[in-house]
Design brief:
This protein is mainly alpha-helical. It has 14 helices and no strands. It has helices spanning 5-14, 21-28, 32-41, 46-55, 60-64, 82-87, 91-102, 122-130, 135-143, 147-155, 161-171, 177-181, 196-203, 206-241.
Length: 242
């Protein structure tokens, strides 16, 4: 997913920013040939827009909202919901919190979530956190993505910025939070309060914590089963091919 090269060039010119591929490459850390190819082929990744915005101290959310694909990006509060925040806490940290609550002496809390995000499975966990109905099929339909491919993207933590924003649109949540989850924006740019994951973990109700852990373990079990089946299939195929 990307914005058009002509729109990107117009956006640059409207802000008095150079359209030189060499200069843009220097500002963003990309090779000048890469930037030049993006503009020439008409597909400029959102990461390039954000990189230029940061270089010129432009709010990345405001910058992205300058493109038709993201024109409504700042139309809702930016901060994530508690469920979105907890979706970005690794299951190991969830279980560590449960251990502390069960036996604080043996498992003292250090007020720190050790595993950063995006963690393995964080994109799928975020989608589950905001899903109010059939968000996967809605995203697939609105972005022209095959539903089976979308499932693969979620399993591989490869949700695109446009897919993330589309998911937020249909779910009625922050349009910015998903861009933090997929790594396009920093937590600061997305208005995620400092230590927000730690805070959400401390205040979640005990029964809700247990339910969330169970959901994650079920997901982990499915992923292990899928990998086992894929390995068995590969082994059978190798035997057939000799």
């Amino acid at each position: 997913m990307a914005v058009s090269g002509s729109d990107f060039k117009q956006w640059l010119e409207g802000r008095g920013i150079t359209t030189s591929a060499s200069e843009l490459g220097r500002l963003t850390g990309l090779h000048r040939v890469t930037v030049g190819n993006q503009m020439r082929r008409g597909n400029v990744p959102e990461s390039t827009v954000v990189g230029v915005a940061r270089a010129y101290e432009i709010d990345p959310v405001t910058a992205l909202a300058g493109f038709k694909e993201y024109e409504d990006l700042d139309s809702r509060p930016r901060s994530p919901t508690a469920a979105e925040v907890l979706s970005q806490v690794h299951h190991a940290d969830l279980m560590a919190e449960l251990q502390h609550r069960t036996h604080a002496t043996l498992f003292p809390r250090d007020d720190h979530v050790r595993i950063d995000f995006p963690h393995d499975g964080s994109h799928r966990a975020w989608i589950d956190a905001i899903d109010t109905g059939d968000v996967r099929h809605d995203v697939a339909e609105k972005t022209g993505t095959a539903i089976t491919y979308l499932f693969t993207q979620l399993s591989d933590n490869k949700l695109t910025p446009l897919q993330a924003v589309t998911a937020a649109r249909v779910s009625g949540t922050s349009l910015v939070a998903g861009l933090v989850v997929v790594g396009l924006l920093t937590t600061e740019e997305g208005d995620w309060p400092e230590d927000v994951r730690e805070s959400a973990l401390r205040v979640i109700k005990h029964e809700e914590l247990i339910e969330l852990i169970q959901q994650r373990l079920n997901l982990l079990q499915r992923r292990v089963r899928q990998r086992k089946e894929a390995l068995e299939y590969a082994e059978r195929l190798t035997e057939i091919l000799g």
